[in-house]
Amino acid sequence: MLAPELTPRTARRRRRKGQRDDYLACAHEQLFLMLATLRAASAEALHTLYFAEHPDGGASLRATYRWLAALEAAELLERQVIHGKRGVYRMTHRAYTSSPRVMRRATDRFRHAMPPAIAGYAWMRASIWAEPKNRGYRVGRGRDELRATRRFLIDNQKARVAMLEGPERRRAEHVLETLRSDPTLTPLFRSHCGACGSYGPLNQALTACAHCGAKPSQVASELRFECPECGRVSDGDDSEHESARDKRRKCTAALRETDHVLFDVAWREGPAGMEVTLIVVDDPGRTIPEQLNVLPLRVAGQPIVPVVLRTTDENSVFDSIAGTWIATGARHRELLRAFSEDGDRRLFPFSKTAKVIDVRADLQLRLRPSHPKKSEA
Ligand SMILES: [Zn+2]
Ligand SMILES: [Zn+2]
């Protein structure tokens, strides 16, 4: 997670030069990269997800507040207030332009204040990411999350195949093949030759090195890039590339660094194998079907995946003392329906491939005020 080139010694040297703001921007590049995925997060969530692990951050929440104040003073972060007196921190223009990697990663809209619905969504999403993180999981949308999801599904399906016989076994084997060949679950990789050090073309499993003939191994690419013009996917920032739409043409659009998966994954390697939980926080900028149709839950007969759901419906209100919803909006009901036993006819029957679980049920976007003032009574 942390930039390996920034050793404590170089960090000290930079501080001595008095370039504190530049140092801050540089030291917290990983924070901005994380915010390129999350857009914004509360101080508590940033503490769990980032500062608690930063070597300069220290373990205390107070230290996190000091860092946030310094980043705000350096005009790298800006606090945006959402309802319920909560606040989220988001990147400023200065943070967005602080490094080439952040610029390649974040989109232009990141420099502006967010509409309230999006700010609330960002708060909810970062807060719910922090929960599994506190329990020893890693959370994100990167290469490791893609690999964890793939391993979870394939390992569990393999175990199931081994237990079955006859036509049931053949059906389970078919599901295993479907999961294995799913392009959205296939990491970017290159064949790497240990003997001469050369790399093969992207996503081609070579049986022998093209240069020396030795047997190569496959290495998953750490970064994923996508061209906004032609849709070409790569593991490097190829400034001039063959157009993915028309192979005779060159495309000169700058590639953007993107997430590896389109869904949020919490995972850890447990004693009994890979543990994976999907986190679905309703993004008000997209429809429910758009968000659910990219989840790795749409192969009939696949292993069941635990899912944590969170609504951002502005008409839903949770009573944290009674532990129940006192109002549920239409969008909230649509989300619940998709995972219910009866399902939503327009969508895949997710109750067959997902098990809805919950963490911190009291952690919801809109809460009923718990202590009404006497004057209001
Ligand atoms: Zn070789
Ligand atoms: Zn292109």
Task: Draw up the topology in text.
Blueprint: H1 8-16, H2 20-27, H3 29-38, E1 40-41, H4 43-49, H5 61-73, E2 77-81, E3 87-91, H6 93-96, H7 100-105, H8 116-134, E4 138-140, H9 143-163, H10 166-181, E5 189-192, E6 217-220, E7 224-226, E8 233-234, E9 241-242, E10 250-251, E11 256-258, E12 264-270, E13 273-281, H11 288-292, E14 305-310, E15 317-319, E16 324-327, H12 330-339, E17 354-357
Parallel strand pairs: 13-14, 14-17
Antiparallel strand pairs: 1-3, 2-3, 4-12, 5-6, 7-8, 7-11, 9-10, 12-13, 15-16
Helix pairs in contact: 4-5, 4-8, 9-10
Protein described:
With 377 residues, the chain is α+β, with helices and mostly antiparallel strands. Among the domains are: 9-134, Arc Repressor Mutant, subunit A (Orthogonal Bundle); 139-164 and 261-357, no CATH class. It has 12 helices and 17 strands. The protein has helices at residues 8-16, 20-27, 29-38, 43-49, 61-73, 93-96, 100-105, 116-134, 143-163, 166-181, 288-292, 330-339; strands at residues 40-41, 77-81, 87-91, 138-140, 189-192, 217-220, 224-226, 233-234, 241-242, 250-251, 256-258, 264-270, 273-281, 305-310, 317-319, 324-327, 354-357. The strands form 6 sheets. The protein has a 5-stranded mixed β-sheet with strand order 4-12-13-14-17, with helices on both faces. A 3-stranded antiparallel β-sheet has the order 1-3-2. A hairpin with a 6-residue loop joins strand 7 and strand 8. Helix 4 (43-49) crosses helix 5 and helix 4 packs parallel to helix 8 (116-134). The longest helix is centred in the middle third of the chain and has 21 residues, at 143-163. The protein is globular, with a radius of gyration of 23 Å. The chain starts with 7 loop residues before the first helix and ends in a 20-residue tail after the last strand. 31% of the residues are buried. Residues 193, 195-196, 198, 209, 211-212, 214 line the site of one zinc ion.
